[in-house]
Amino acid sequence: MPDMAVLEAMKRKAESLRQESERAKGALEVGLKRLKAEYDCPTLEAAQKKLDKLVAQEEKLSGELEAAVEDFRTKWKDVLGEE
Q: How far apart are CA 75 and CA 78, in angstroms?
């Protein structure tokens, strides 16, 4: 049978883990409230879907911008002094 010192150490460890769990739950709750308030995403899954959509949109727009800049440079290369 474990002695009192071992039991006390186990009790302290269990209490520490409980407190850590409570802090994590609180942080998760705050994060979910922020996702809902700022991005209208009630769950992490909804936030991930929205993020994926926004990343795809950004990639598309970035490609369009690069093409437009290239067209501009080609059209105005004489005025810009580019070759």
A: 8
Q: What's the DSSP call for residue 8?
A: H
Per-residue model confidence as pLDDT tens for the chain (83 residues): 678 999 999 999 999 999 999 999 999 999 999 999 999 999 999 999 999 999 999 999 999 999 999 999 999 988 888 76
User: Which residue type does 77 have?
Assistant: K
**pLDDT for 56:** 98
Domain count for the chain, please give it: 2
Range of the domain at 14: 1-40
Q: Rounded to an integer, what distance in angstroms lies between the CA atom of residue 22 and that of residue 24?
A: 5
Query: Helices 4-39 and 44-75: crossing angle, nearest 10°?
Result: 50
Residues 34 and 57 in one domain: no
Separation CA 59–CA 53 (nearest Å): 10
